[in-house]
Amino acid sequence: MKDNSFTTNRGISRRDFVKASTITAGGLLLSSLPVGASAFAAGSETLKVALIGAGGRGTGAAFDAIRAGDGIKIVAVADLFQDRLDSCMSQLEQAFGGTDKLDVPQERRFVGFNAYKKATAEADIVLLCAPPGFRPDHYEEAVRQGKHVFMEKPVATDAPGIRRVLEAGEIAKQKGLNVVVGLQRRYQNNYREIVRRIRDGQVGEILGGQVYWNQGDIWVNNRQPGQSELEYQMRNWYYFNWVCGDHNVEQHIHNIDVASWFLNENPISAQGMGGREVRTGKEHGQIFDHHFVEYTYPSGARIASQCRQIPNTFGRVAEDFQATGGFLFTDGAHNATIHDRQKNLKYNHDGMDDPSPYQQEIIELVESIRKGTVIDDTRIGAEATLSAIMGRMATYTGQVITWDQAMNSQEQLVPKNMDWDTPPPVTPDENGYYPVPVPGRTPVI
Q1: With 419 labelled, which of 1, 6, 58, 233 sits at a CA distance of 20 to 30 A?
Q2: Exposure letters 409-421 (e unless 16+ CB within 10 A, then b)
Q3: What percent of the chain has pLDDT over 70?
């Protein structure tokens, strides 16, 4: 990444934060996350894997891990809910039961807010796939225990969480731990090929672009009789900012990350608009149903970012870029093209036989562990997440938000040391509606 040494009159800049986090890693954080030997020395021994978060994405990650090579087995699973853990185990047992790929007896199936600590202790690799609000806790614990990590994006839902992840990442680096973040486009052949051609100077300088994640609506889990408010929010985590971050953070982060990756720099500011135009029910919690953000980069490039979750509307999940030497197109379906300024096709990626990037990121994690090398995606994941959070702050407030404002934000969305007696961070009013950000009224914190 280019050095975005943006500064403010107060707080810390990106450069200062990197320096401060390194110092912290040698002092306070080092005492709380002691440096120890890496969890697995390179070799042919069986790699034991623990899954933290047994929902749909976690179950998929467990399948990917099992299929990443020989000598890999799932040995522990943890989730907040017993029924979700049972569903995951049923799918794994149906596919791999009776093989040496699955070894999860009842005593290594853990349920509850602290289940992740127990599961982590059983493994060499942990798959962190619980809702993103808990990612900083889970990542810190994995690093504390000296485990290699695959963690889904985003890596936090607020700036304090980002700072914790970056600090833990410094310890992971000292321990020689591999950390792969689930920004899978970085492990996808069509994107890698376009980046290679950008770095080789084949398209000139990128001047601007448009990134999209527009789709229909998503799932809702109806409130059940006798359900506590905290359980209801955890069952519907996508609709609550403290645990999800809103859909431009949880989902659209992929496309925002592509822009920063292609430009090889992080945005210095964001401004935009968003709201709840269609998805306005009590069951839809707090999040917006659309965001439109303009990101400005140090090079002068501007990226228009849009995401929407509204039924019966135009859908698109892709990226377009305009450069001095032509036009770029990429998408998650393994497509990529380059046209010159006269619209002549100069490159067309044929991704029909490309591997799944979800599988590839785990394969490369395992290969790196076995070779004794290190993949470190911590900063990539943290900076992509902060970029998305910066966009959310801009749409929620209606203000221009700088990188340093976002990095220095003290707004902490996730309570510490949660259990089932912890009061939910947000509660509905007397009519059952949750507080929703209002541009022009919601403050920058």
Answers
A1: 58
A2: beeebbeeebeee
A3: 90
Which one of 2.60.120.280, 3.40.50.720, 3.10.150.10, 3.30.450.20 gives the CATH number of domain 14-185+359-375?
3.40.50.720
Between CA 339 and CA 347 the distance in angstroms is: 7
Nearest to 111, CA basis, from 133, 92, 87? 87
- HSE-up of residue 371 (Cα within 13 Å, Cβ side): 10
Is the pLDDT at 41 greater than 70? The verdict is no
Helices (H), 294-410: 357-371, 378-397, 403-408
Q: Which CATH number fits domain 189-355+387-408: 1.10.760.10, 1.10.10.10, 3.10.20.30, 3.30.360.10?
A: 3.30.360.10
147 touches 39 (CB < 8 A): yes
> Span 257-281, mean pLDDT?
98
DSSP string, 257-316: HHHHHHHTS--SEEEEEEE-SS--SGGGTT--SEEEEEEE-TTS-EEEEEEEE-TTS--E
pLDDT, tens only, 394-434: 999 999 999 999 999 999 999 999 999 999 999 999 999 99
State how far the Cα of 50 lies from the Cα of 211, in Å rounded to an integer.
34
CA 173 to chain centroid, in Å, comes to 19
pTM over 0.90: yes
Query: In 3D, which of 174, 136, 137, 140 has the Cα closest to residue 22?
Result: 174
What is the C-alpha to C-alpha distance for residues 413 and 381, in angstroms, rounded to an integer? 19
Contact (CB, 8 A) for 398 and 191: no
* Per-residue pLDDT reduced to its tens digit, 105-164: 999 999 999 999 999 999 999 999 999 999 999 999 999 999 999 999 999 999 999 999
Three-state SS for 63? helix
DSSP secondary structure string, 15-62?
A: HHHHHHHHHHHTTHHHHHS-----S--SSSSPEEEEEE--SHHHHHHH
Cis omega before residue 154 (within 30°)? yes
